[in-house]
Amino acid sequence: MPYTYDYPRPAVTVDVVLFNKTSTGVHCLLIQRKNAPFKGDWAFPGGFLDMNETLIEAAMRELKEETGIANINLQQFKTYDAINRDPRHRTLSTVFVAITDNINQVAKAADDAQDVKWWPISQMPLLAFDHQQILDEILKSKNSTL
């Protein structure tokens, strides 16, 4: 029998920020959310951690499920834990980042993504959740090569 606690626990999610450098500039892959909250808004691919996987496994699974893109070298960036970052409940999210050059995989929306698109980082749409803050921190990071 699994052990349970009498106290509430936060949900754990992952988000993937995938950049692609091309001859026309740097683009970021976003999904358009199919479900509430933020239905119809743009966000990073991501989702909830399953009980039988690590954070990196969850990030790779979510990226593939929502966009069809696989086999990307993801690097853990930071964990976000603001109390109200997700309107559904208390949620912690670990963000993974990858920078590619002229990716040869075609992104296709699937699972809970109704659309997927590469956006020029100079023309990003309004982002769901705290994803604008995340993007800003990645772009300002001393390790950023964008």
Describe what is shown at a glance.
This protein has helices at residues 55-67, 131-140, and strands at 11-22, 25-33, 42-43, 46-48, 75-80, 91-101, 113-120.
Structural description of this entry:
It is a single chain. This protein is an alpha+beta fold and 146 residues long. It contains 2 helices and 7 strands, in the order E-E-E-E-H-E-E-E-H. It has helices spanning 55-67, 131-140; strands spanning 11-22, 25-33, 42-43, 46-48, 75-80, 91-101, 113-120. Strands 1, 2, 3, 4, 5, 6 and 7 form a 7-stranded mixed β-sheet that branches. Strand 1 (11-22) and strand 2 form a beta hairpin. The protein is globular and about 55 Å long. It starts with 10 loop residues before the first strand and ends in a 6-residue tail after the last helix. The relative contact order is 0.28.
Fill in the keyword field for this structure:
Nucleoside Triphosphate Pyrophosphohydrolase, single chain, 7-stranded mixed sheet, globular, 7 strands, 146 residues, alpha+beta
CATH homologous superfamily assignment: Nucleoside Triphosphate Pyrophosphohydrolase
Strand segment tally? 7
Q: Detail the poorly predicted runs.
A: none
CATH topology, what is it called? Nucleoside Triphosphate Pyrophosphohydrolase
Report the structural category: alpha+beta
- Specify the biggest β-sheet: 7 strands, mixed
* Spatial separation of the terminal alpha carbons: 49 Å
Strand content: 25-35%
What's the gyration radius in Å?
15 Å
The SSE string, one letter per element, is EEEEHEEEH
Tertiary shape = globular
Provide the residue-averaged pLDDT.
94
Oligomer: single chain
Total of domains: 1
**What is the share of helical residues?**
10-25%
Please tally the helical runs, counting DSSP H or I stretches of 4 or more residues: 2
Task: Report the CATH architecture.
Answer: Alpha-Beta Complex
- Which CATH class? Alpha Beta
